[in-house]
Design goal:
Pfam family, one: PPR_2
Largest sheet: none
Keywords: Repeat
Oligomer: single chain
Family: Belongs to the PPR family. P subfamily.
Shape: flat
Number of helices: 24
Protein name: Pentatricopeptide repeat-containing protein, mitochondrial
Strand content: under 5%
Radius of gyration: 28 Å
Order of helices and strands: HHHHHHHHHHHHHHHHHHHHHHHH
Organism: Glycine soja
């Protein structure tokens, strides 16, 4: 079969590749070179910020244009280095061509808050708000409140919350209430948290799912399941019903607290009573339980579908890879068929685990057939999928098929990685396919110029 495939490739593919080689490589290099150069600059600058003691002097030697996007990406890449990030942000502000936006400002404030460097954070907030007229969004102020709470500074969390309208020009919206609620619950101040909920209701703010989830998760994590149930019942009596049912919140709270068996038991009781969990709750259960008990998740999936629950895309994102990894390929096919029948087009990260499972079982013909079917019915394969398939073919000694996929992905505008070229070239030479190996090498040279 290998000889037949190589003859077909040599007979039909060679003229086509010789005709299109220059146009393909030109398209690949022009499409990826500018983007690769841009991210290479960001990577280089980020390394300087993280590791160079004299980073300002080194950055001044670089001939780069300081833009808001560049500053934001570098700050995000260096979020674990608060002091160096602040030095870089102050260096960028000295450039006359650069004017900070709220995106970079909030990123550096969040980085400093999480690192417990509050003095530098407040000094920067005063400078930027005064000189650049920028203000923090509710989400950024909420991150500051949560950072104080995570570091056991509850009093400071309350101060930031109370002074946010005047000090930070940020109204006390629902995200700020939820952030302070999380800080109080993190420090086990449940009476204060419940008083904050009552204050929220007096202000006319309706709690959202986050509000309920914070309290229920906190109570469940401290073994106070009864208090969580009473809170949900009281809120329902007052007319503030949660966006999802109380039992779903309790299930998620038990999962977050680590009481997996209790959560599974509660879901079983719901199904026995003819009730189905919310899709989000079901996905949370499957994501947690599938790591240890895939059979339970598959059975639960069929039971809730029989009761009328409509799974969403996230359900299949969790189930299909877990089922494929456990070796239940037939069940993975069944799930994918259900996904397609629901009107969706499978994406590469969904059908790649099935292909990998087939290859691991040695069913390469089935894997190739299924891959061809997905190319026709699903979203086009991406570079990681081709890399995985080429690697699996190489490990099984199917170097001619691997070479064919290298040519195919190149024609689609995807650049194979160097490891794939080396593996396929060496394998073809070892099995006597020198002409095909030479053409693979020529393709690599034309793409990379090496």
């Amino acid at each position: 079969m290998l000889q037949t495939c190589s003859k077909l490739i040599l007979r039909h593919s060679k003229p086509r590749l010789l005709l299109n080689l220059h146009s393909i490589t030109k398209t690949l290099t022009t499409a990826s070179s500018s983007r690769d150069e841009y991210f290479a600059v960001i990577h280089h600058v980020s390394n300087i910020v993280r590791r160079d003691f004299y980073l300002e002097r080194t950055l001044n030697k670089l001939r780069i244009t300081v833009t808001p996007e560049l500053v934001f990406r570098v700050l995000r890449a260096c979020s674990n280095n608060p002091t160096e990030s602040l030095r870089f942000f102050n260096w960028a502000r000295t450039h006359p061509s650069y004017s900070p936006t709220s995106l970079e400002f909030e990123q550096i404030v969040t980085t400093l808050a999480r690192a417990n460097t509050y003095q530098s954070m407040w000094a920067l907030i005063r400078q930027v708000t005064l000189h650049h007229r920028l203000s923090l969004s509710p989400s950024a102020v909420a991150s500051v409140i949560e950072a104080y709470g995570d570091n056991r500074h509850v009093d400071q969390s309350v101060q930031v919350f109370n002074k946010s309208p005047l000090l930070l020009n940020c109204p006390q919206t629902l995200p700020l209430y939820n952030a302070l609620l999380r800080s109080l619950c993190h420090n086990k101040l449940f009476h204060g948290a419940y008083a904050l909920v009552r204050r929220m209701l007096r202000k006319g703010l309706r709690p959202d799912k986050t509000t309920y989830a914070v309290l229920v998760n906190a109570w469940c994590s401290n073994g106070k399941l009864r208090e969580a149930k009473l809170f949900l019942e009281e809120m329902s009596e007052k007319g503030f019903n949660p966006p999802v049912r109380g039992r779903d919140l309790l299930v998620e709270g038990l999962l977050n607290a680590g009481y997996v068996e209790s959560a599974k038991g509660m879901v079983r009781n719901m199904i026995k009573q003819g009730s189905v969990p919310d899709v989000g709750t079901f996905n949370a259960v499957v994501e947690t339980v599938s790591k240890e008990d895939v059979q339970f998740c598959v059975g639960l999936y069929h039971e809730v579908c029989a009761l009328g629950m409509a799974p969403d895309v996230n359900t299949y994102k969790i189930l299909v890879p877990a089922v494929s990894k456990s070796g239940m390929v037939d069940e993975a096919f069944r799930l994918l068929n259900n996904f397609i029948e629901d009107g969706h087009k499978p994406f590469p990260s969904l059908y790649a685990p099935v292909i990998k499972a087939l290859c691991r079982r040695g069913q390469f013909d089935d894997a190739f057939c299924f891959f061809g079917d997905m190319k026709a019915k699903a979203h086009p394969p991406n570079r990681p999928l081709y890399t995985m398939l080429i690697t699996m073919c190489g490990r099984a000694g199917k170097f001619v098929e691997a070479a064919n996929y290298i040519f195919e992905m190149t024609e689609m505008g995807l650049v194979p990685i160097s490891r794939c070229f080396d593996m396929v070239t060496d394998g073809l030479k070892n099995c006597g396919k020198h002409d095909l190996a030479r053409r693979v090498q020529e393709l690599e040279v034309s793409i990379r110029g090496v």
